[in-house]
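Troubleshooting log. The previous structure file for this entry was overwritten by mistake, so regenerating from the original sequence record. Sequence copied from the archived sheet and checked twice against the printout by T.R.
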Amino acid sequence: MPEGFALANPLEMELGKPRSAFTRKDIISIIRTHELKRITFRYTNLDGRMHELKLPVRDEQRAERILANGERLDGSSIFRGVIDPGLSDLYVVPQYASAFLNPFEAGSLDLMCRFFTREGSPAKFTPDYLLAASAQAFSDDTGLELHAMGELEFYLFHTPQTALYPNNVQAGYHASAPFSKTGHVTNEILSIITQVLGAVKYAHGEVGFIPSMTSSDPQLDGKQGEQVEVEFLPIPIQHTGDTLALAKWIIRNVALKHHMLAVFAPKLEEGMAGNGLHIHLELKRDGVNVMRAGEGNLSAEALRLIGGLITYAPTLTAFGNTMASSYLRLVPHQEAPTRVCWSESNRSALIRVPLGWLSGYDFAADINPQQDQPYKHNTSVQTVELRSPDGSAIPHLLLAGIVTAARWAFSHPQRATEAATQHHVEGNIFADPALLESLPSLPASCADSATRLVQQRDLYEQGGLFPPKMIDRVAELLRSENDETLAGDLARLKADDRAQQSRDIMHRDINRR
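Regenerated output below.
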């Protein structure tokens, strides 16, 4: 349990226990001690955005009833197209481990929730259930735990207060003040996310910098945009969906406080960096990373995981790239994948194997000879990174799909390993036309993703976890983008007309997810 640090979780500090051990009695004591006025239930649906239900607390008896039994809501409004309106009532029930003091509204204790049916059983058609059930099934089948973390990229749009120290276009990577004008906002975002969620690695300026946006949307027109990335630490994948949803909620609220607009949309301007949601994955056995075979090559388990991702990649876009503008980001030479392949440290590959640190190596000792106590660690932190998802992703469904791919890989080890072996590349794939042509393409549109998902729906429905209605609803949402001929239509336009049409498409849903 963290103690003595400013960014430690305040409830853990107060209760003297980790959040995983929070009980109903603990929650009630927090409400009493802080004289809180309400409990706020939080949850997400297929739009991936945060929803809330505010419940006033007038006495301990009511607080205990709320925390034990939850509340009811209209499930057909929350999960439109997935649940029958005639059977729409659901219970929404809080998870005590998720409790936090609302940093934006004094007097509220907030908790993430899960859904139950009228019979009192978990609602199996909800994205959060699919993720939790998929993760449990994977662990039961393999004896392994799948951990995940996201790289959450977004733009902060604002009216600059000064013209001094302008940054350069596409030169925002790790920019600092005075060239970066949003560092104070990033600092606040980082502090709140760390206190509420804990598993944060770092934040930094990303490549994208737009000096002045041209848009028909007044939220964007004339504003300056700086791209930021918040990267998390790996946690059990069943918790990663809530982490990403809460992080986006925090980022938007901090931005609003500073009269800025946080935008996670996949693409905002031709030639400018888009917003990815890269997902890093690691396999653990008994708490130990098993992604490397000693200090050598990737382990057999890691290769199977890669093979599963390779096999499922053309359908994972249905959950990870859900807007027409997603496929304006997935274009060559923009550090976004277009072909199904994997490589070490190659940012044009669909799956990248990033640096993972050598076990037990203390780099700093080489340049700080005065340090007399070496840093010791005896486990790998190796991950593999899926680079196709973007800010339009439906996080819980994307992660559930990733777990399903991993589960397939371990039930078909030979096929998964062969897929990994056959799709390994080195160097720049665009410099080798023959190699490029041999690699399968990712879908080119939402319509294409919908078609592939429906054609291969058995990949997800086998085992009974993904209900058919969920596959149908996701395909319906993708088809509603009406982008089947978009790439060809844009290619036939003159440059100025293409830029304007592209902007209209990219900016039409900047707040949707």
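The longest strand covers residues 145-158. Archived copy saved in two places this time.
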